Amino acid sequence: MPEFDRNVLETLREPLEAGRITISRAALQADFPAACQLIAAMNPCPCGWRGDPGGRCRCTPEVAARYLRKLSGPLLDRIDIQLEIPALTAAELSARATVSGEATAPIAERVSAARERQLNRQGMTNRELGGRQVDELCRPDAAGEALLREAGERFGWSARAYYRVLKVARTIADLAGARMPSAAQIGEAIQYRRAFGSV
Ligand SMILES: [Zn+2]
C-alpha cells in the first residue's frame, strides 16, 4: 500500500467513508457509487525485512518511519481491521502444513447468516449504520464500555474510530448470534485496530 503516492492513497478516504466518490473536472461534477471492501497489504519497511531476527533489514529507522507515514491517520481511521502478521520461519511453515483449519464452506455459511441477521434487524449492513443507530444497536455493557474508554485514550482514537470499533464488535456478535456485543467481543474488535497503535 505505501508504494502509492500519499495523495493517491488519500483519495480513498471519501469512498471508504461515504461509499460514493465525486469527480470534478472543469465545470463538470459527477457522483459515482463506490461502496467497496478494501483489502490491502504492506511491508513494514521498503525492503520488507524490518523486524526480521536474522537482521536482514538495511533500512534506517527514519526510512522505515517515512514509509509508514505514507498512510495518514485519517486514512487508517477508516480501515476497520488492521493486523500485523509476522513472517513464519521455514520450520513453522512446514509444521503448519499438517494443522488443518476450519473449511471455507462452514465459515461462508456463518458469514452469510450474520449478514442476514443484520439486514433483518436494521435493513442494512453494520458498516452502513449511523451514529444514533450504533448507540442503539451496539450498546456495550459496563465492562465493554470500560475497555473501549481505556483503548480510546491509550491509542488516541477519534470519534470515527470509536464508532467503527463498535460496528466491528456488532459484527462479531452477529457471527456468534448474540443480542449485544459482550465485553470479550468488544475486546476482540479493539485487538483488530492495534497494528498501528503506536504510529
Ligand atoms: Zn527494511
UniProtKB/TrEMBL annotation:
Domain of life assignment: Bacteria
Alphabetized InterPro entries for the sequence: CHLI-like, Mg_chelat-rel_C, Mg_chelatse_chII-like_cat_dom, P-loop_NTPase
Domain Mg chelatase-related protein C-terminal, chain residue ranges per copy: 101-193
Every Magnesium chelatase ChlI-like catalytic domain range: 1-92
Protein name, as recorded: Competence protein ComM
